[in-house]
């Protein structure tokens, strides 16, 4: 079922559900880019459809909405432990097909990996998706190669053009808001090809660990962790205990995003550390994205959004690395 309406009508819908939902979408942050006088596109709360950036890929994924960068798990005193209150509002997120696929990967790690993470589950159960289409493939995207360019897992689909909003509604909860509007056939279009094509190696196994190509990344990578930060599927975290100054026995435990690429991530008691070389860290990340995860769950972790390539200050390309790996596997054979 599809509906067509003026922007103002759709804004009325957003205003109506704002009492029940927090609404997130990619928004333009003026002057907040990497370099001076540049902008950034990042997820934030919106009130109108005009605030949403449709024609640019967001620099950060919507992951931080359902998996906060810093999340307090509980507060503690000398004799009690208390979990923080969770906002009762539901969450509506505007996102693209690749990012919907990315959330599926997070669900796999946090909900279907032998244990349900209660903190992630509380937020995830409240989330509904609004699909945004990509008229053209963006720079560095390779979603077609990863099979994440199309999806049916959404509640609403939205297309904005010439002051009009076209909506496909797949969730009965929202249909009542649009029943008075003009009906029309509304079908999302999906990207069918990218400029970047990635060939996942066949027959990939532990022998590739000794590939000489990993050493290139020891020389180039600066261990900043940007690739993990912008990635929609990276799920690693560390724990921090915060003690208050007025009472050293009172504080809170926080879960904070972590990066397998940064120094100290694999540090252990006694001073031992795994993967001290940056090339080894790159190997760990790449193999997890296109080998280990697939071996365990039957599909690749990477969704081909290309944000890691966009963000790297050393112009290290994940997609290029996988293609090099593919060639290396052929040569080994």
Automatic annotation (TrEMBL):
<keyword id="KW-0411">Iron-sulfur</keyword>
<feature type="domain" description="4Fe-4S ferredoxin-type">
    <location>
        <begin position="211"/>
        <end position="242"/>
    </location>
</feature>
<dbReference type="InterPro" id="IPR009051">
    <property type="entry name" value="Helical_ferredxn"/>
</dbReference>
<protein>
    <submittedName>
        <fullName>Anaerobic sulfite reductase subunit AsrA</fullName>
    </submittedName>
</protein>
<feature type="domain" description="4Fe-4S ferredoxin-type">
    <location>
        <begin position="293"/>
        <end position="321"/>
    </location>
</feature>
<dbReference type="InterPro" id="IPR017900">
    <property type="entry name" value="4Fe4S_Fe_S_CS"/>
</dbReference>
<keyword id="KW-0408">Iron</keyword>
<keyword id="KW-0479">Metal-binding</keyword>
<dbReference type="InterPro" id="IPR017896">
    <property type="entry name" value="4Fe4S_Fe-S-bd"/>
</dbReference>
<dbReference type="InterPro" id="IPR014259">
    <property type="entry name" value="Sulphite_reductase_A"/>
</dbReference>
<dbReference type="Pfam" id="PF17179">
    <property type="entry name" value="Fer4_22"/>
</dbReference>
């Amino acid at each position: 079922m599809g509906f067509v309406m003026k922007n103002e009508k759709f804004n009325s819908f957003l205003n109506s559900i704002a009492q029940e939902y927090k609404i997130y979408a990619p928004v333009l942050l003026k002057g907040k880019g990497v370099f001076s006088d540049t902008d950034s596109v990042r997820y934030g709360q919106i009130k109108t459809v005009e605030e949403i950036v449709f024609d640019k890929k967001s620099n950060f994924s919507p992951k931080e909405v359902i998996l906060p960068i810093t999340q307090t798990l509980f507060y503690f005193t000398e004799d009690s432990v208390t979990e923080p209150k969770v906002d009762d509002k539901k969450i509506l997120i505007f996102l693209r097909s690749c990012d919907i696929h990315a959330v599926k990967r997070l669900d796999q790690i946090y909900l279907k990996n032998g244990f349900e993470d209660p903190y992630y589950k509380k937020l995830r159960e409240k989330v509904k998706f609004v699909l945004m289409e990509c008229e053209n493939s963006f720079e560095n995207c390779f979603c077609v190669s990863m099979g994440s360019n199309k999806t049916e897992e959404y509640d609403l689909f939205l297309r904005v053009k010439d002051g009009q909003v076209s909506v496909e509604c797949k969730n009965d909860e929202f249909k009542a808001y649009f029943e008075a509007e003009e009906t029309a056939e509304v079908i999302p279009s999906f990207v069918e090809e990218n400029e970047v094509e990635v060939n996942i190696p066949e027959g990939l196994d532990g022998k590739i660990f000794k590939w000489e190509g990993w050493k290139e990344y020891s020389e180039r990578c600066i261990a900043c962790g940007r690739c993990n930060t912008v990635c929609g599927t990276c799920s690693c975290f560390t724990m921090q205990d915060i003690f208050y100054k007025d009472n050293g026995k009172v504080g809170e435990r926080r879960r904070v995003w972590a990066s397998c690429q940064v120094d100290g991530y694999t540090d252990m008691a006694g001073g031992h550390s795994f993967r001290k070389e940056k090339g080894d860290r790159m190997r760990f990340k790449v193999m997890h994205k296109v080998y280990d995860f697939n071996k365990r769950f039957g599909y690749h972790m990477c969704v081909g959004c290309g944000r890691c390539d966009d963000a790297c200050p050393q112009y290290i390309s994940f997609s290029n690395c996988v293609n090099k790996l593919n060639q290396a596997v052929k040569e080994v054979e």
